[in-house]
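Aim 2, interim progress. The first record below pairs a target sequence with its structure tokens.
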Amino acid sequence: MITWSGRILAFLGALHLAVGTLLSSRYIGEWLSFQLWFDGTDVTELRPAVGAFWLGPGSFGLPLLLIGLLVEWMDRRDIVPPAFLALALLAWIGVGAVILEPAPWLVAGVAAVLLLVGTRRSAAAPGAVSVPRAG
């Protein structure tokens, strides 16, 4: 379960990053010439190049990809990811699903539920290493 969760999260992150960057690629010249820097306009009125940046390379795609790869890496080493990671993902997915549709929130939600169930089952399994508590 944990492996599939990591794979799904990594796939969604990579897909979002690739498609978002591809769709916004016409603005790459503006990005690389520092035209996204604050220009004195109201921050709530984004120029198309700024919005395109936040759709692609500035999106949550890369962190989601890294979370998925980290979850899979931990699972391959028999390290149980902390349950708070799955709970935080579920909270983020829930808020996102309420605010923005259509989006693949259901697929991300399945991955987060798989992660949560997998962490609960693995924490009780003999031989699994849990993330140590601080303090």
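The second target in this work package is listed in the same format:
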Amino acid sequence: MTKHQVKRKILAIAALVVGSVLASSAAQAQQAGVTRTDLQRHDLSAPGREAVQVRVDLAPGVAFGKHTHPGEEIIYVLEGSLEYQIEDKPPITLKAGDVLFIPAGTVHAARNVGNVTGSELATYIVEKGKPLLALVK
């Protein structure tokens, strides 16, 4: 491989990395009042699977609409009171210290029903390479 080809390959990889970071930031900034902070991402011993941990903060009164994940979501509420709507079941409200398990592909939504910022630690066990979140209309 020539020096020119190596430089071109490095520039292409750099462009992909920058594009991924910008796309991730844009996706996170799409909804006012919701902050998603990526904490860690690791491959698992199960082929094609990875674990991802994200802190999600919702401002008072803010809702995050219906969505799914390409794997399981395990929620631990850190602060506040968050209401979860899972498929057509009655909504449930969780407070700091409560936990919730959401099976892969399950349509769900969350809403901060308190008067302070609500926060959760979301741990995802998902298919590697798929978008972490898909909005549902």
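The longest strand covers residues 34-43. This observation will shape the mutagenesis plan for the next reporting period.
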